[in-house]
């Protein structure tokens, strides 16, 4: 199977570090995410993949792998598909309804030359994947994730981590971000605290523990981040203050700008 390709045709698929159910979830595939197959487990039950969007590698169950031809993979790469902006919507796939989540890719293109290999029908809210949007739209999307439970490697309104939050919000707004803190640190433009503005990424360190995370600077010096759940806390004198307990929880380490760069 090495050297072949696939696309996610389920609402969400866990991508795991190792080819076993109890392995750490490193990322997720949402409907429409496409990938390259780079290997298969010895028992043939797991497929080793590299996600095209952010180059994350991991394992998915063979039964959740949907193979596609190299030509179709190339078409997906070049087409400006739609990305969904409803928390949950329904797509009719091969005459069967399927629930899909915000940030899913639906293969609807303006190109009349595009040859569809599959049958789809979708009339939910979406935008063109490549269309870049400003902060007001980013805020609208970001707040739809509010109160999503924390989940390592998650990328949906029903479970996500901090990197997944900022990656998905930016992806829906037309920007490509990596899926690790190290990658986020290397790209974008560093900005100083006094120059920070809504939409900037904020890198955080948890007080007393030093655990690193990332969030989004919102209006009125509020920070959208993940700590048990997606939450909105105030930034006061360089520290995050828990909106419920009023205790300081994190310190701000740095800012980076991706929006409008």
Would you write up a description of this structure?
This protein is mostly beta strands and 261 residues long. The chain has two domains: 5-128, SH3 type barrels (Roll), CATH 2.30.30; 135-257, endopeptidase fold (from Nostoc punctiforme), CATH 3.90.1720. Helix content is 13%, strand content 38%. The chain has helices at residues 70-78, 135-142, 162-172, 181-186, and strands at 5-7, 12-16, 25-30, 34-40, 46-51, 57-61, 67-68, 82-84, 88-93, 96-101, 105-106, 120-121, 126-128, 155-156, 159-160, 189-191, 201-206, 212-217, 222-226, 230-236, 239-241, 248-257. The strands form six sheets. Strands 17-18-19-20-21-22 form a six-stranded antiparallel barrel. A five-stranded antiparallel beta sheet has the order 6-5-4-1-7. A hairpin with a 3-residue loop joins strand 19 (222-226) and strand 20 (230-236). The longest helix has 11 residues, at 162-172. The protein is globular. The model has no long low-confidence stretch (mean pLDDT 91).
């Amino acid at each position: 199977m090495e050297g072949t390709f696939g696309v996610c045709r389920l609402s969400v698929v866990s991508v795991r570090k190792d080819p076993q159910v109890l392995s750490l979830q490193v990322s997720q595939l949402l409907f429409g995410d496409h990938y390259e197959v780079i290997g298969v487990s010895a028992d043939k039950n797991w497929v080793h993949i590299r996600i095209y969007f952010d180059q994350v590698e991991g394992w998915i169950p063979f039964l959740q792998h949907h193979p596609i031809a190299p030509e179709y993979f190339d078409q997906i790469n070049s087409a400006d598909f739609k990305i969904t902006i409803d928390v949950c919507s329904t797509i009719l796939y091969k005459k069967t309804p399927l629930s899909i989540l915000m940030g899913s890719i639906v293969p609807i293109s303006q190109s009349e030359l595009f040859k569809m290999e599959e049958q789809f029908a979708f009339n939910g809210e979406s935008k063109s994947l490549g269309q870049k949007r400003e902060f007001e739209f980013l805020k609208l999307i970001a707040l739809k994730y509010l109160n999503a439970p924390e989940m390592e490697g998650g990328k949906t309104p029903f479970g996500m981590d901090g990197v997944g939050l900022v990656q998905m919000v930016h992806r829906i707004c037309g920007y490509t971000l990596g899926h690790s803190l190290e990658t986020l640190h290397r790209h974008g433009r560093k900005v100083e605290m006094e120059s920070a503005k809504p939409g900037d990424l904020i890198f955080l360190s948890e007080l007393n523990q030093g655990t690193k995370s990332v969030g989004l600077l919102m209006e009125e010096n509020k920070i959208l981040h993940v700590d048990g759940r997606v939450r909105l806390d105030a930034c006061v004198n360089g520290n995050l203050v828990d909106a419920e307990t009023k205790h300081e929880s994190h310190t701000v380490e740095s800012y980076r700008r991706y929006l409008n760069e």
